[in-house]
UniProtKB/TrEMBL annotation:
Protein name (record): Transposase Tc1-like domain-containing protein
Lineage: Eukaryota, Metazoa, Chordata, Craniata, Vertebrata
Gene Ontology MF annotations: DNA binding
Domain Transposase Tc1-like: 32-89
Origin species: Poecilia mexicana
Gene Ontology BP terms: DNA integration; DNA transposition
Length: 110
């Protein structure tokens, strides 16, 4: 029979149920910050600091990634885009029928 030994160190601030609530909050609001998740968690009954939220999310496998900003278009790029769009402004959509033949390894032509 395996018995868990008493662990040293500070006891966990959150229970497994509260960790699941944090996981659900994170999946529901993926673009929110840990401080915002903390406030949402407080409403759900999980009273922890934002550092604890970060630690729990890291344990669950979530990673922090800062979104990269796209560089703004330069004036020359804006002019060429506008020119390209004006040239194609009068185009119409023509429906075409494409015949594709799919082959499967086991059944031959489908």
């Amino acid at each position: 029979m395996v018995v868990k030994a008493k662990r040293t160190g500070r006891p966990r601030k959150t229970l497994k149920r509260q960790d699941k609530q944090l996981n659900f909050i994170c999946l529901e609001n993926q673009k929110s910050t840990t401080k915002q998740m903390k406030h949402i968690g407080e409403e759900a009954g999980v009273n922890v600091c934002d550092r604890t939220v970060r630690n729990r999310l890291k344990e669950m496998g979530f990673q922090y990634r800062k979104a990269k900003r796209k560089p703004a278009l330069k004036t020359k790029q804006k002019r060429t885009r506008l020119q390209w769009a004006k040239e194609r402004q009068s185009w119409t959509v023509v429906s075409a029928v494409f015949n594709y033949t799919f082959y499967s390894q086991s059944f031959g032509q489908i």
